[in-house]
Each structure stands twice: as structure tokens, then as C-alpha cells.
Structure to design on (451 residues):
């Protein structure tokens, strides 16, 4: 593949991730085009971009998901490439095709790979064939209650019903007994239909005490594949990540090396292009693949902190047909990094808390990174995801990282709206967390017990 000149990028997203992409472009001398809804006219991503285009009214389906408006914005501004960020259109294979059909470069994997991984059953089959262990479950979708029951009986309860087209923790239901199955199946199907437009579901063994461990990879179009180690994202509420760290306190160096090597080899065999994350549940020393995300992840900065690699820069280089700037042997993972996701939500009830930010003072200092589009006077709109900031810190080791995180959380001032900063302050003081002793169910139990 020959190198394509990328001189201008349209960022088809908003909030902190639009800023994150803008920053990488700026440092590469690339012109940026922001798109925004009418609710975001005053947003920081619009203010900082070289150009901006309003693409519709506040609801995401009319603006950030409005493909014709985004393509028109790219045409009007004469951009070369489109970066989808995460969420919105980032895992929409048809969007990737449309972008390319209009002569723009899609900064991401091929539409075929997006489609393949968007079907979670197909993804499991693909990785199983590549020698990766997967969570036991139905090999295909379950047609009806009888089929679901047969699979569940074979594996033993509890089981998990999951949407084939799932994402964001939606369309997922735990089932403890045969009596609960029919109702759970119909709820999961309903949720899947409402969220993804498909009610196809499958059954998996429900793991009772796993950790969520994922591997970050980057692959170019010249056969180069590297990994940036793993992230532990076990601290979740309603299957949504709250705090992530790398390296995982649960893995020893041999396990880390083994899973990262296995993943890198599978990705090379797939001929995948771009950044990607392969997610596993890890229980009793064994890894079980659950899904692959074919995009930049919210928690990518912790991998950047320990590796020194700018993942967005590499995404752009890959899309331009260049070789990765690194080989595996160039990568040294050093220190420990943690990210806290800060949401505009009540820290105990988790009720959404949009509104005007009266005062704003982010923490700073050595090895502290804040990815946020907030500023004093900004009004957090009610229409979008509640994530308003990511606080990321690096320490020479986990203990130093925790001390620095505590200090940074103490410094962080967001006045005028409720945020989850108090939740993080309490969380990082918990002995189980300090000891690294937690699984994917720990956080919800802790929240229930302390609020
Ligand atoms: P989504 O695409 O909606 O994020 P995932 O398949 O990535 O769904 O799963 C999200 C989270 O749900 C996991 O990190 C884990 O906490 C939980 N989960 C998924 N599958 C299982 C399972 N088989 N057993 C127990 N928990 C699960």
C-alpha cells in the first residue's frame, strides 16, 4: 500500500476524545475540522479546531450519527481523512465504507474487520480458530428458549445472555436458574432490539469472579503488529468501566507475556489494520476471550503513559499507509498508570447531573494528565454520555501511582455540577483496591455496601 498524504482530518466526535485527536493532529502539523451539534456550539473541541461545521440539532442521531451531514462537512472543508473517535460511528462498518466510497481515508480498520468483530459470535469463532481461548457458550445465536435452556443445562447455571450486536453493557442478563430463563431471554432480546436493532442473543457461562483484562494492539499495513501490554478494567458498574490500571495487579510477567504474544500473533494472522483491543475475562489463571473493539478505547491513555507511544498518532500513520514507528523490541513498559473516569453524575445515586460548570481547576504536576473538554462557564449538555474528564496518573510503581492519584483527586475542583470525583476519592482508599484485590463484581458490591 502506498502512503496517502493526510493534511487535514475531520474529527467525527465531541468532548474529550475530539480534543485528544485534535492534539495529536496539531503535533503532526495536520489541519483539523470539528463537527458539532447546536448544543455544542461553545464546546472546547469546536473552539480549538482550525475549522468547524455544525451538523445538526442536539440529539446524536441528528448530528454525531448523521452520516450525510458528516460526509457533506468533509466535502465542504476538503478534508483528507475522518477519525471517528470512540462511540458514535466508530464501530459502524457501513460508515467506514461510505467514508472510503467518498474518497476519504477512514482512520480505523477495514469495514470487513469492523463488521466481523461487531458480530460477537463471529468474533468468538474467529479468535477460537486462531488459537485463543474463549468463554464457553453457545457456538451460535440461540433460536428459542429450548435451545437456550439446553446450552445452559450443559454448562450449568449461572449463565449470561448476551446480544450478538452488543456494546456498552446493554442487552446482557445473568440467569441463575431454569425458572428465570424465559423472562431474562425476553428482557435481553428487548434491550438488544432497542439498542442495536437486532434481537439476536447467545448464551455464555457466567463467570463468578473474573477480572477484565484487555490487550492493546497496533497493526500497520506492512505486517507490523505490536502490543502495549494489558489493562485491568475490572472496576465496573453496570458493565461500564469506572477506573482502569496497567499493569494488572493480578498477572505475573509470564502470564502477561503469554497473552500479549498470543494476541499479537492472532492479529497478525487476521491481517488487521489499526488500533484494537482484545478483551478477556481472566479467572483462576485462565484467559477467556469475550470481544474485540476495533477502535480507540476510552482508557487508551494508561497504555500511552507506560509505553510512551502516542496511539492516535500511530492510528493516523497507519491510515496514511506508513509503517508503525515502533517494533515490539522498541517498546518498554515502565511504571504503573491509573485512569479515573469522571462523570457528571451524583457520586452516590449516579443520577445524571448536566449543568453549568461554575469553577474549574484541574490537577497538574509531574506525570499527571487530564483529558477533558471542560472549562469554567461551560455548560455540560444533557444529550450525551456523562463522561466529562479522565484523570490519568503515572507512578514508578503502583504505590507511587496511588499516592499521586490521591493527591491529584484532592486537587481537582469542578464546581457547579455533581461529579464522581468523591466516589474515586473513597474508592482508592479502600483496602481491597489498595491491595489490588478485586474482580468485575467487586465495585457494585462495594457501592451497595457503602451508600
Ligand atoms: P460490551 O460489549 O457490552 O461492553 P462485553 O462482552 O465486553 O460487553 O462485556 C462487558 C462486561 O460484562 C465485562 O467486562 C464483564 O464485566 C461482564 N461480562 C461479560 N461477559 C460475562 C460473562 N460471561 N460472565 C461474567 N461477566 C461477564
Amino acid at each position: 500500500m502506498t502512503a496517502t498524504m493526510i493534511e487535514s482530518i475531520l474529527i467525527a466526535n465531541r468532548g474529550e476524545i475530539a480534543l485528544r485527536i485534535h492534539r495529536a493532529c496539531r503535533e503532526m502539523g495536520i489541519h483539523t475540522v470539528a463537527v458539532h451539534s447546536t448544543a455544542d456550539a461553545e464546546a472546547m473541541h469546536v473552539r480549538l479546531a482550525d475549522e468547524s461545521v455544525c451538523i445538526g440539532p442536539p440529539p446524536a442521531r441528528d448530528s454525531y450519527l448523521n452520516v450525510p451531514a458528516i460526509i457533506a462537512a468533509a466535502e465542504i472543508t476538503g478534508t483528507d481523512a475522518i477519525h471517528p473517535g470512540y462511540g458514535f460511528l466508530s464501530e459502524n462498518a457501513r460508515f467506514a465504507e461510505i467514508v472510503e466510497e467518498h474518497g476519504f481515508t477512514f482512520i480505523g480498520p477495514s469495514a470487513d474487520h469492523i463488521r466481523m468483530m461487531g458480530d460477537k459470535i463471529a468474533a468468538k469463532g474467529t479468535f477460537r480458530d486462531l488459537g485463543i481461548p474463549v468463554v464457553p457458550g453457545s457456538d451460535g445465536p440461540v433460536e428459542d428458549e429450548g435451545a437456550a435452556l439446553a446450552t445452559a443445562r450443559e454448562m450449568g447455571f449461572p449463565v449470561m445472555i448476551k446480544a450478538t450486536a452488543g456494546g456498552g453493557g446493554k442487552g446482557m442478563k445473568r440467569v441463575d436458574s431454569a425458572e428465570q430463563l424465559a423472562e431474562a431471554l425476553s428482557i435481553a432480546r428487548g434491550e438488544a432490539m432497542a439498542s442495536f436493532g437486532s434481537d439476536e442473543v447467545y448464551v455464555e457461562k457466567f463467570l463468578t469472579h473474573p477480572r477484565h483484562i484487555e490487550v492493546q494492539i497496533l497493526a500497520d499495513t506492512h505486517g507490523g503488529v505490536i502490543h502495549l501490554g494489558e489493562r485491568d478494567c475490572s472496576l465496573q458498574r453496570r458493565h461500564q468501566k469506572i477506573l482502569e490500571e496497567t499493569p494488572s495487579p493480578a498477572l505475573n510477567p509470564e502470564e502477561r507475556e503469554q497473552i500479549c504474544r498470543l494476541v499479537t500473533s492472532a492479529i497478525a494472522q487476521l491481517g488487521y489494520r489499526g488500533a484494537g483491543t482484545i478483551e478477556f475475562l481472566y479467572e483462576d489463571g485462565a484467559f477467556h476471550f469475550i470481544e474485540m473493539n476495533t477502535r480507540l478505547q476510552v482508557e487508551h491513555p494508561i497504555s500511552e503513559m507506560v509505553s510512551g507511544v502516542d496511539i492516535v498518532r500511530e492510528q493516523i500513520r497507519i491510515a496514511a499507509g506508513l509503517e508503525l514507528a515502533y517494533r515490539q523490541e522498541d517498546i518498554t513498559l515502565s511504571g504503573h498508570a491509573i485512569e479515573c473516569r469522571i462523570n457528571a453524575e451524583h457520586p452516590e445515586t449516579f443520577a445524571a447531573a448536566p449543568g453549568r460548570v461554575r469553577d474549574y481547576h484541574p490537577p497538574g504536576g509531574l506525570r499527571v494528565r487530564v483529558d477533558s473538554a471542560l472549562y469554567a462557564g461551560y455548560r455540560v449538555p444533557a444529550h450525551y454520555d456523562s463522561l466529562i474528564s479522565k484523570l490519568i496518573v503515572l507512578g514508578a510503581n503502583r504505590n507511587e501511582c496511588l499516592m499521586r492519584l490521591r493527591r491529584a483527586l484532592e486537587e481537582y475542583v469542578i464546581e457547579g455540577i455533581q461529579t464522581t470525583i468523591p466516589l474515586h476519592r473513597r474508592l482508592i482508599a479502600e483496602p481491597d483496591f489498595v491491595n489490588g484485590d478485586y474482580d468485575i463484581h467487586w465495585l457494585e458490591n462495594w457501592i451497595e455496601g457503602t451508600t
